[in-house]
Write a structure and sequence with these properties.
This protein is an alpha/beta fold and about 240 residues long. It is built from eight helices and 14 strands. Helix 6 crosses helix 7 and helix 6 packs across helix 8. The longest helix is centred in the middle third of the chain and has 16 residues.
Length: about 240
Amino acid sequence: MGSVTSSAERPVDEPAPIGRILVIDDEPRILNFVRRGLEAEGMDVDCARDGEEGLRLALTNPYELVVLDLVMPELDGHVVLRRILDRKPSQPILILSALNDTASKVSSLEGGAEDYISKPFSLEELLARVRARLRTAARSTQTRMSAGSLTLDMIRRQADPGSGPVPLAEREFLLLGELMRNAGHTVSKERLLSSVWGYHFDPGSNVVDVYVRRLRAKLGADAIVTVRGVGYRIDAG
């Protein structure tokens, strides 16, 4: 499996976010390395050395983030990812895997993962992405957005197309929020990939299209307008 590299320390004037994190990895050295790094940031860390234990912890405890390995014996990370999101669709999950091929990255992201980091990795990059995830959740000061008859509750993470509240998975919520912040304007797929997924990968991936279809299934076929060759738009109303 993969290895890790050391990193520079975070500047002392940058505040450390606090969060409860679950790390699932069958390689003890990496598990301990990640645990120590996160705990040094002031985070509360639970660890699981196999998929079964990780799944049990993820389903019985609240976590701001789950850091998940893919290649594990018996219950592998692909299954764990799917089972967690089946029960807790809004659970943020970051994949940390030795699989660095595009297919594994795309399938994980389209399967609902928040982010994907390949091994070997730097602790500095991992901490930066974890901090970014925690800041995104902590800095949401706006409680509600509206565009026409569509409203988005930023606290409950529910959308209401005018017929009642609809719960959203994490990526659905972030994608809809980005479109609603730019209501009346077309947002390119490239910008959505960067702002919602924070990850640049094979532009042939249809991950944005997949999530737009999911939102339309929940909010109505006309909720999001396709601007062919450019991106997507929500009309301001």
